[in-house]
Structures are given as structure tokens and as C-alpha cells.
Amino acid sequence: MSYESNPILDKLPKHLKQFIKPQNYEDYTAIDQAVWRYVMRKNVDYLSQVAHSSYVDGLKKTGISIDQIPNMYGMNRILKEIGWAAVAVDGFIPPSAFMEFQAYNVLVIASDIRQLENIEYTPAPDIIHEGAGHAPIIANPEYAEYLRRFGEIGCKAISSAKDYELYDAVRHLSIIKEAHGTPQEDIEKAEKHIEFLQENMGEPSEMALIRNLHWWTVEYGLIGTVENPKIYGAGLLSSIGESAWCMTDQVKKIPYSIEAARTEFDITKPQPQLFVTPDFAFLSQVLEDFANTMAVRRGGLLGIKKLITSQALGTIELSTGLQISGEFHNVIEHEGKPIYIQTKGPTALAYREKELVGHSTAYHAEGFGSPIGKLKGINIAIEDMGPRDLKAYKIYEGEQISLEFEGGIKVEGTIITGTRNLMGKIILITFKDCTVTHEGKILFQPEWGLYDMAVGQSVVSAYNGPADLNSFDLITHQLTETTIKPKKSAKRLQLEQYYQQVRDFREGTNTTISRNKVFQVIKSEFPEDWLLPVELYELAKQSDDHHFQKELLDHLESIKRNNPKVGHLIDDGIKLVDASLVS
């Protein structure tokens, strides 16, 4: 096993465990640790004024240190006290899997950390975003329940084939943008491809809409009033650039509502508007309103059509409780209702999320088709017929029968047996020598074997994924590309060594190093590096070495002149040091 388990992680289904990877804590360099420390010190200083009160409390409750990148094992020991756990993954994972993890109270953490060059914001999920953004807020019980419930509902949302294409494109961009030395034209090409896909998505799928809700709440949400909002979204909590930008008048603040589901977002740019929820309870209210629009609650013809469009594994549930899981391929409709459904490839039948004995994907390997609805000219549906009714209509073992459904589906054959649910209703009827037709077109013929006819007058639910997780082999996830680990130059390794020496000195593990010698090397060999001189300035300030302080400040001023883009980062770093050492 590549991670240390605990009771919460033990409950995860196998298909989610395939996304988990080891954290490999020893891979974090001293530069990575310095990036974490800088961002966290700046965040806590600023966010203590503008974030929801749960944030600072949550940092303590979840055991997240300001001075070092959190170790997943340590986080899990503390998270389990609030009923959650955390796992490491490689960057973006498919949205449905991400949400399903949430449904199991598991926080997904991309364990890589942004480069120093992207210290303010990265489109790639990283440990600053996940660990410092998501984790602290889940210490708030009401918000944690919203997150769990969101995962539960979100993983049932039906995607479209275009959603999968967009996911791959976004993942690709996030990888190359964070990778060291990617040519600018490659980044621009990837951004243009995403723009093209976003402009040609057609009618948004349920997954696209619920991802919008996720973005405007979990990632970029504000709470309170439009006039005086506080931050709770992880994307804002983990971005030292956007957390300040979002509080200005340049970002429009809108009262949160279900309309957020129809508001698109662009991960490559700062957000032009943000939504403000009055409280965490209101998030759950809007989520339930949205869930009422989904096929998981509405079913019907539209639900089946959404599954067909998705070209992926999905489930419909009939009014009898029978669940059909597979890739839906076709539906015949009549007067706005489905009268026949057809899957292709491996299909399984279930009841109450448990596969029916004898109705696995091995048995229905070529697909499954069945009429839906009521019999023509008979007021009572088959599922509502008692034993006497069934006998009267000759729906009985051994009877050769012809059933004609509303809409013109005909089932002709000899009944072998029926399968009932716990309430005694027939949910499945098995025929031999059976022919199924619609307006003269053959849908099933005797040579194909036994015919299993689902019983149900309506489709009450349609959703992503299988009814019984054990019915399908879901361990099929293949990453098209993985996070790019740069081959480090000798010079880069040398810089990491100097960062480590300064870190060791600060932590008291090696106080024999000469900080002045380190500074002279940085000044001549790495004149663009600004973060280590800021850390050296902190040490000079602590030891009251005024001459060294002045040298460092002069050098930092020259960096600002040569690279104005990092000027505010240097100024903020110096301010933090000065503020923390005021007696």
C-alpha cells in the first residue's frame, strides 16, 4: 500500500484507491519549504482579517503548521478527530472521482507544491491550495457536512463526452504551466485549446453545472454580506494574490443563488465576480435546489437522454426499484415518455444497490433492452398487479403470452419465471422463445437466448456510475500524462543546498554556517533569487545585526529594480519579518 490507512480510508471503494499516490515527503526541497512558509505566513497575517473565523481556528484543529509543509500522516491523525481523512493524488483527477472522495469524508490533496516562480497563484492543484485552503475550513461542522453532501450529489451528476475532453485539456495545461521551462507558445496553444472547447461545449451537462457551483462556493466562495464579505473558498485562501484582489471593488460581489450554476469560470485568470452566501446553511439549501433539477431525482426521458449523451457508465432506476447499469445506447419514446431502453456492452441489474443474482455483466455482456411503461388498454401496471391480477392477465409461469405496451412495443414468448422485490412486486420477468418488436422492427429474437424483461412503468432516477460498485471493473483509470518533474541542474541543486543551510540554522540543527558567506554566494551566483535574502534578513533582524540587515535590504532593492514583478512580494516579506519581530 502506498499510503498509511485509517478507519475512514478503509471504507473507500477500490476504484477510488487507484488515484491515491504516496506523498514522498522527502521529495520536498528546502526551496519548497520556504515557499510554503512564505505563503502561509503571508496568508495567516492577511487572512486573519478577511477570512471566515473558521479558517484560523481550523489551521490549529487540522494540525497545519505555518513553518513546514504538512505531512499527510500527521494530518490524518488530527483530521480523524473531526471525522475526515486526507490522501495524496497527482494533480487534477476526474471531477466525479474528486466528488466521490468528498462523499466519503476524504480530502483529496495534490501533494506537489508550486514553483517559487508561481508563488502567488498556480492553475495546478497543489498542497498549498488543498492543505492550506480546503483543510482548515472543514473543521467547521456545517461546512464539512455541505462538502460531504456536495460530494454525494456531485458524483451522481451525468457528464458529457465533451466534459472528459475538457478535463484532459485542463489537466494538460495545469501540468505544463507548472513545469519548469515550458515554452510560452506551448502554454498559449493549450490555453487556446481550452478556450475553443469551452466555446463549443453545447448545452452544459449536469457535471458542468455542478462544477460551476463547486467553483463558486468550495473554491471561490465568499460569506457574509455583499458589503462586508469574508473568504472561505480554498482557491482564495491559498492564493496570496487573489485573496487581496478579491476584496477590492474591481471584483463584483453577487448574492449567491442557484444562478451560479450557469456562471462559467476560467481557471487561467483571476475571477471577475464572486458570489457571497449569507451563511453555510444557505449553501446546502441551494445545493438541494440544484439536486432537484438533476436526473438522479427526476429520471424520465430526459435522464435517459443525458446518459446516452455521456457515452459512459450510468444507471437508471425504475419505479419498482430495479436498477439497470451500463452504457445507454438508445431509447424509443412515445408522447414524451421512454417506452424502450437499450444499453450496449456489459450491463448489470441490481436492486437497492445490490446486484441481482444471475444478472451480472458476464450474463448481460452484450447489453440489455426492455420496455418501460404500462400495457395497452389495461389501467393497472404490471408492478401493481397482485397474484390474482397476474393470473387473470396470464402473466404467469409457463404461459405463452403476447404483451403489448403503450407506444407499440410487443413482447411475445413463454414466461419462465418472475423476480420480486422485498415488497412483493415483480421487478423482472424471464421469457424463452421470445420476440420483441416495435412497429415491425425486431428488438430481440429467440435465437439470442432467454429474454429478461424489466418491470417498471416509469424511470424515477438516472445517474452517473453503477448501482452496485462491485458489478464493474472500475480500476481502469489511465493518466494521459503525469506531473512533470524537472531534471535539476547542478546550479539548482546548489541553490537548494543554500536554502537548506539557512533552514537548518533557523531551526537550530546547524548553527555553524556563515550566513554572510551564503549571502555573498547568492548575490553573485543567484542574483535573481529574492526569497532566500528575505529569510536571511529575518535572521539578521533576530540577531540585531544592523550592518547585515542593510546589506540585504540594498540587495533586495536592486532585485526590485531589475525585476519589478517581484517587488510587492519582497516588500510583503520584509513587512512580515518587521511585524513579527516588533517587541
UniProtKB/TrEMBL annotation:
InterPro entries: ArAA_hydroxylase, ArAA_hydroxylase_sf, Aro-AA_hydroxylase_C_sf, Aromatic-AA_hydroxylase_C. Residues 1-340 form the Biopterin-dependent aromatic amino acid hydroxylase family profile domain. This is Aromatic amino acid hydroxylase. Keywords: Iron, Metal-binding, Monooxygenase, Oxidoreductase. Its cofactor is Fe(2+). Fe cation binds at H129, H134, E219. Belongs to the biopterin-dependent aromatic amino acid hydroxylase family. It comes from Flagellimonas aequoris. It comes from the Bacteria. GO terms for biological process: aromatic amino acid metabolic process. GO terms for molecular function: iron ion binding; oxidoreductase activity, acting on paired donors, with incorporation or reduction of molecular oxygen, reduced pteridine as one donor, and incorporation of one atom of oxygen. CDD domains: arom_aa_hydroxylase.
